[in-house]
Amino acid sequence: MEANNIESLHLTINGKRLWNQLMDLGKIGEEDNGGVTRTSLDQKDIEARKWFLNLLEQADLSPYMDAAGNIFGQIIGKNPELPAVLIGSHLDTVNSGGCFDGAMGVLMGVEVLCTLKEKGIQPERTIKVVSLTDEEGARFDYAFVGSTALVGTEGADKLKENLAAATDKEGISYLEVMRQASLEGEYFNQINPDRLELAQVREKDVKAYIEVHIEQGKVLENEDLAVGIVTGISGGEWAEVTITGEAGHAGTTWMNERKDALTAAAECILEIEKIAQDSSGSVATVGKLEVKPGSSNVIPGRVDFTLDVRDIDNERRENTIAKIYDSIRAIAADRGLRCEIRPVQSLASVMSSPSVMKAVKDSLQEIPYPVYELPSGAAHDAMVLGELTDIGMIFIRSKSGISHHPDEWSSFEDVALGCEVLYRTTLKLL
Ligand SMILES: [Zn+2]
Questions:
Q1: What is the pTM of this model?
Q2: How far apart are the two ends of the chain, measured CA to CA in Å?
Q3: What digits encode the pLDDT tens for the residues 349-404?
Q4: How far is the CA of 102 from the centre of ligand 1 (A)?
Q5: What is the Rg, in whole angstroms, of the alpha carbon atoms belonging to the chain?
Q6: 292 CA from centroid of ligand 1 (Å)
Q7: What is the dihedral sign for C-alpha 198, 200, 202, 206?
Q8: How far is it, in rounded angstroms, from Cα 197 to Cα 1?
């Protein structure tokens, strides 16, 4: 059945309400080109957080914020001792991103809770919607802050250390920005980067985490489907590489005397591409390159570049990374240059829990809508939460597969249908 026959599907959720909220939220941080910029705890992110807190208050969903700035709304269950069901995503964006990535998943969570309330359903277990702090990592090049704090992945002290080391382009540390945000008044005063352990939840308190997200690829569009079940999320490793040679005059230094850091980096980047191509599964990207001193008549003396390697198969990814690191070292050594590789973050692949996948599948069949499964190449908070609890994700078709871009788009019909699937899935998990 086509999602554009939405009228015939008799949805339980209120698709129009959800859509209007999504469009309203998209105005916060909107730019002339239609893109949306709300990077972590910047002025627009704070404005969006206040908007969201107000929405939760209006919906009577008892909002609260934790030490890492994660924002929760909730319906307390009849038996609050039972592990809770968590629906979440993120409100932050990349620079000039779209209004669906993250925000859609959070607002669908709100819509599910509102629908439960309107139907007078008080579930056995508590259900929460959560907006997780900084999924994108666009401002500080450090991502998954809220989910990492929630799970306690690396311990509160280590996380604080990393937040102190991460700076934005103005040179302000993440830690300092969090401290400033804690002065924003009610709810925000709970933010406390010195006590991040307060944000940690225990395994026995959560039954499952479910996240709806735009696909950010063309698989569903090619299949002519609005909704898909995510089987697992590719793990990733992120690193920074510095190649140091010698700066010199472009006119007076003979070719055989040069220690050009940029030509070495160029050779590394081509080799990285080749290693990933030969791996039959890994993808590797150099997305950021800085050339110093950066002058047209000076041989580059230093190049810094980023590395992003992903693969759903953990062993194959580790293999690819090891080969890439070896080749960078070999290329630098061959050319008589120095290199430094600094791993920044590493996340293992996470498979969706069979019980959550089954709940999504049963929901699709109930509607009825075709069941289709696909993996996620992009990282999501769900993979961090996967270390704590059962996870599941639902993907919504992205127009032309575009995301992190002003043209990012999912249709009203697809969003409404996706939220209906989430609602039915949640009922099964409750
Ligand atoms: Zn996202």
A1: 0.86
A2: 27
A3: 999 999 999 999 999 999 999 999 999 989 899 999 999 999 999 999 999 999 99
A4: 4
A5: 23
A6: 33
A7: positive
A8: 47
> What's the DSSP call for residue 170?
T
Tell me how far the alpha carbon of residue 38 lies from the centroid of ligand 1, in angstroms. Answer: 12
Write down the residue that tokens 């699937």 correspond to: 421
CA 80, CA 204: separation in Å to the nearest integer? Answer: 12
Determine the angle formed by the axes of helices 412-429 and 354-366, rounding to 10 degrees: 120
- C-alpha 269/C-alpha 291 separation (Å) is 14
- CB neighbours of residue 418 within 10 Å: 28
Calculate the alpha carbon distances from 372 to 223, 313, 377 in Å: 9, 21, 16
Q: How remote is the CA of residue 330 from the centroid of ligand 1, in Å?
A: 36
Cα of 105 from ligand 1 centre, angstroms: 9
CB 56 within 8 A of CB 63: yes
Q: From CA 249, how far away is CA 14, in angstroms rounded?
A: 66
- Evaluate whether 77 touches 136 at the Cβ level (below 8 Å): no
User: Could you tell me which of 212, 216, 268, 275 has the C-alpha nearest to residue 243?
Assistant: 268
Q: Are 110 and 129 in contact (CB under 8 A)?
A: yes
Kindly give the distance from the C-alpha atom of residue 136 to the centroid of ligand 1, in angstroms, as a whole number.
7
In the reported structure, the alpha carbon of residue 264 is separated from the centroid of ligand 1 by a whole-number distance in angstroms of: 34
Residue 7 to residue 214: CA distance in whole angstroms: 22
Domains of the chain in start order, with CATH, are 3-234+349-429 (3.40.630.10), 235-347 (3.30.70.360)
Beta-carbon contacts of residue 9 (< 8 Å; ≥ 6 apart): 1, 367, 369, 417, 420
Could you tell me the two tokens for 118? Answer: 């309107």
Model pLDDT for residues 45-103, shown as the tens digit of each residue: 999 999 999 999 999 999 999 999 999 999 999 999 999 999 999 999 999 999 999 99
CA-closest candidate to residue 395, choices 182, 170, 210: 210
How far, in Å, from the CA of 134 to the mean position of ligand 1?
Answer: 10
- Between the CA of 384 and the centroid of ligand 1 the distance, in Å, is 13
State how far the Cα of 174 lies from the Cα of 157, in Å rounded to an integer.
Answer: 14
Tokens of 143: 């991502």
